[in-house]
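Thread: Modeling a multi-component assembly for a lab meeting

Hi all, long-time lurker, first post. My supervisor asked me to bring a structural picture of a complex we are working on to next week's group meeting, and I have zero experience with this. I have the sequence lines for every component (913 residues in total). Could someone generate the structure of the whole assembly? Inputs are pasted exactly as I received them:
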Amino acid sequence: MTSEKNAQIGQAREAFQMLYQVSQLLNTGLDAETLTICIQLCELGVNPDKLALVIKEIRKMGEHATQSKAKTLQL
Amino acid sequence: MDNSNNIPALLNKLCEELTLKQDAIKPAEAYELALSYMTSINEQHSIPDEKILCQKIHSRLSTVSGRDADKFNELFAKLKNTFVLKQPVSVLSLLLALSEAPQTTNSTQQLFPVPNLSVINSAAAFTGASSSKSTVGSASWGVNTPKQQNSNPSISTNNSNLVIATQSCNHANEPACVRDAVLAATGVKARSSCNWSRPVQVLYSRIAHLGFLHDKLKDFIDPASVFTPQGLMVEGLVAAIREELTEYYRSVALLQSQVCESDGGGGTLRRVSVWAQDPLHRLHWLATIVHSVQHKRGGELATCVHRYVHHGDERVSALARRLLTSLTYPLLLMLTRWLLHGEIDDPYHEFFIESRNGVPIDRMWHDKYRVREWMVPSFMCREQAAQILATGKSVVFMREACADLPDQCDTSPDHAIHLQSLLAAHTRTGSSNSEVAWWEAEGLREGVETAHLMASQRLLAALTTHHHLLDHLAAHRRYLLLSQGDFVHHLMTLLQDELSKPATSLYVHNLTCTLEAAVRATNAQYEPQHVLSRLHVNLYPNCDGREDSGWDVFALQYRVDGPLGTLFPATCAARYRALFTQLWRVKRIEYALHDAWRDHTILQKRLKAMPEVWSLMRRVSCLRAEALRLCGALQDASCEGAEPAWVELLSAASEGHHLDRLLQLHHNALDRHSIHAMIHHSTQELQSYLGNVLNETLALRSFETTLHTGINTELERRERYEALKAERAARNEFAITCPDEAQDKERRKIFIQFLASRKADLNVWARSYRGHVTTLILKLALHQEVSLQTLAFRLDYSDFYKRGDAKLHEPLTYQHKRLSEMGLHLAKTRLLDHTKRK
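Re: Modeling a multi-component assembly
Sure thing. I ran the full set together rather than chain by chain. Output:
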């Protein structure tokens, strides 16, 4: 039983590694932890397009915030 | 299912992760945003087809790099085999949506075409194992063509034709033949041959040519081969070629696998031969380049490969570019090291700057380093090489001769950043084609220039501030070239008696005391201590054993040491000494003539009662004035002639030009001085004529001395005679006795005779003197140096000598030239007027 579980975990890890490599190839900018969460979300059936949109929006927000911060610092 | 696995919790975690990196926004805001997006319109999205998704990703990757695309295929195939993921497609589509165009490519672009022999295989490779094994179907074609055009157009366009062509091919021994051909491409000998049809043989030999080229390259990169010269740059080339070959092997391996897998239908000899087109071209050029660089190393090697960069064929040029970038990397390292630290690390003598052993420190600047002309790569011009040499030299000079390092670390100079960025750019881009290689980048030239500027400015600043370069230059001019008038005059006055003694009775320490006295009494005392402490007296006895007077051996000396010793080397000191001797000689003659004038003037007052000497004295003083004027003109000329050169030198020094330029200007100034003092190698003839004139002038001085002593003794005798007469008259005796009168008469007669012979001497002297002066003027006028021609004009501005000598009427003289030039000019203007009127 445990060996089966172990094998499953190993397989999952392997799959994750592969996905991580694909993510690197595609230059998505996701780190390992974020990717883990994303995979879990996808497994739960979240719409991937929407998820992508959310991530992009949050990134954009961050950029805006840092820019405005920089501007205020300059002023 | 535990708590962490429901969607909102995960979303929250995601938001936290994302906002962790950017602290500008709060996770809560992000979470709200995410929730609003997620819940907005909850329409059922259509899960994209797996195949289409794969193709999308593949095409995106293959635009960037073929290797990445291959890697993806591999990964995807593996991913299909693991059944852990329930929604792999969804994850992939997420990744695709998030993917961005990369700014820089990390991997090399594809060098060799990926073989894509069979349609079935290619489709399988792209869509994974799950895709149905379709035969050549139109649907699958339509999907595949755009991708294939990206990687290897030659095959995709020919594919359909080939399928038809292969139908007619001999099917029986085809697979064996193809296998042999593929093996032959890597230089492995085939086991069987000869029993094929002729067209097959032709195709086979085409492919087998790859093997030949491959073997050739393999020989070159073989470390045990004797043909490969040693050297880092050759290693660079070998590495580049090895990389090319690795790519080639990869391509061949893929080909082989496809040939072996496909069961007859896919791999035909013709397809392989089409695939071989590109590798053939590439290997052919690689082999050509390798052949041409044999027995070359270092810069020659770079030059040799650089020739191919200008090849008209883009592929060849790109290939050469890649090779050159790879092989010049050691050169770049050496260059940077040399420019920044002045160190040469060149075990195989490949760098174009050479350091020579055993050069003493004072010759370091001139002799230690030099450019190996034949090693300068052709992408670098000669000036650049010279600049690079000067830069490193300055750095070394600063370190070794000036022994100062303080501001090396704290200023972090611009050029260092420049060069570091060059290095960084090189290491980052690897052999990527899109970026400009270091050897053709603007940055190199700029970097070298700024490095040169910074180094030379730093060096010059150190020399002028710590080592008083300008002070020493000025001191050389003031004391060795006699431009400090009061000092020179005073020294002359003090030394006059001493130097008239024979050279053997002179001692340096006595003269040094005199020099110090002269310094104390004149403006020279205000010179800074570092200048005065270097001013010395020296005696340079002649080797030929002549009886020299002190004048012949005396010379001032200015001792420079430390880093300046490098700039004023022994040769320079010798030139200064020669100049000093000549100038000192003219000065001394002038001084002697002035001395004679003083004696003359003192004597003049007592000559009222001696009318018989008046005419002679007058004539002597006229001739003396003539000689004095000549001396004055000579000195003026030597000052004025070199003045512009000195001005240029000093302004260059204050503007902070580089040291080589200063040295050159200094050399120029010395040249000008030598020319005007007529001791330059181009004025050797003049030197002897000038020597004659000066000797004659000295003879005038000795003539006057004898004349003055003669007159003085006669005057004294007469005074004594008169005194005797007056005394006798006071004693009421007869003033004159008979024998006295007779004696007086006798004496007067002797004196008259003395005067007559002096007069004759003077006439002889005047004739020979004028003869010498006339020759000198003539030679000056004929000299090609314009300033000497003007000197001739100046010496004879009133045509005095010209009237006396027919030789000076020759039309080569400066005056004639000037007149004729004026005449020409007039004629030209007249002609112009004439044409205008017409």
